[in-house]
Amino acid sequence: MKELQVAAVVVTYNRSELLQKTLAALEAQTSAPAAIIVVDNASTDDTPQMLAARDNSPSLQVHRLPENTGGAGGFNAGMKIAYEQGYDAFWVMDDDTVPRPEALEKLVTTLQDAAEFRGGPMPSYAASMVLWTDGSACEMNIPTPTWDWVRPVPYQKNWIDLDCSSFVSCLVTREAVAQCGFPYKEYFIWFDDAEYTYRLSKWRPGILVTDSYVDHLTPENKGVFWSEVTEANFWKYSRGARNQVSAGMSLRKPRILVDLFAGLYRQLRGAPVSRKLKLKLTKAAFEGFFQRPRIEYPAQK
Questions:
Q1: 231-238: average pLDDT
Q2: Nearest Cα to 208, choosing from 144, 151, 251?
Q3: Which is deepest, 108, 135, 169, 296, by most CB within 10 Å?
Q4: Which residue(s) pair with 130 in the sheet?
Q5: Which residues is 144 bridged to in the sheet?
Q6: How far is CA 5 from CA 33, 67, 174, in A?
Q7: Domains in the chain, start-ordered, CATH in brackets?
């Protein structure tokens, strides 16, 4: 197989200190990305100045958006830029992701190994094993395997097939983008990565590469629970509920809807959340039935 030309796509917003760690880790890869594309979501901290001070890096590109479009809008924009520039694969991540030195090399070689094992083309994407700062699995980034994920295990492979993963170190192939389009920018935040990787996996399953490690620098190692919704964070939780319903409908996956509404019922019942907030969150979920964004495909040349 030919050598893949990879563009790293990093979306950032007001986290310059964390972004510096991400960039340093990308520059220290044993197999360096051909380009590092930073999408700045109109940061108001010192991110622009910090990036300007790094302009001597030949692989670094900075694309500042005129307004904050959320993670979803940032990944949509960054992948479009990378696709237009002709790269073979797009390594997407947030600005609090620190890939270990062999992370990209393992993703690329395992994509090729999985293709040979399957006797055909490469998986649509390859996701890294996401760790928290203490070395345990990051609870926010537990991927969803396919029903037959054990098939490579008897052959001692370092990967399993996936239905869904996060955007914390996910290498998406150009072919997959050409077939399945770009992430929905309309989602703004939450479940945009799940919807997109589910969409890719419906076309061709992705893989989790179990020895490609990245560290996710979240403040604590915990998942997201509906019982923790407050007036202050409602803007995120409401989008998460809306987007999950929207994804379940567009992907024709009833399980996504069942998981959401069962989770809302189970976690909100008896939770210290006001009745008003529970109703608002439920209303936001039902808005997802009417959110039908169109898939944007790359322009055909």
A1: 96
A2: 144
A3: 169
A4: 214
A5: 164
A6: 7, 30, 10
A7: 6-216 (3.90.550.60), 226-290 (no CATH)
- Among positive and negative, which fits the CA dihedral 64, 69, 71, 76? negative
User: Which residues are paired to 99 by β-bridges?
Assistant: 214
The tens digit of pLDDT for each residue in 58-113 reads 799 999 999 999 999 999 999 999 999 999 999 999 999 999 999 999 999 999 99
Q: Give the pLDDT of residue 189.
A: 96
DSSP string of 240-262, one letter each residue: HHHHHHHHHHHHT-HHHHHHHHH
CB-based contacts of 196-199 (< 8 A; 24+ apart in sequence): 196/167, 197/125, 197/127, 197/162, 197/163, 197/164, 197/165, 197/166, 197/170, 198/163, 198/164, 198/247, 198/251, 198/253, 198/256, 199/251, 199/295
Q: Which two tokens stand for residue 70?
A: 């959320």
Task: Give the span between the Cα atoms of 158 and 160, in whole angstroms.
Answer: 7
Q: Which residues pair with 126 in a beta bridge?
A: 171, 207
- In this structure, what DSSP letter does residue 139 have? G
Q: Give the tens place of pLDDT for each residue, 115-149.
A: 999 998 999 999 999 999 999 999 999 999 999 99
CA–CA dist 141, 129 (Å, integer):
9
Name beta bridge partners: 93. 10
Rounded Cα distance, 8 and 89, in Å:
9
Question: Strand pairing partners for 161?
Answer: 207
Task: State pTM to two decimals.
Answer: 0.96
CB 146 within 8 A of CB 201: yes
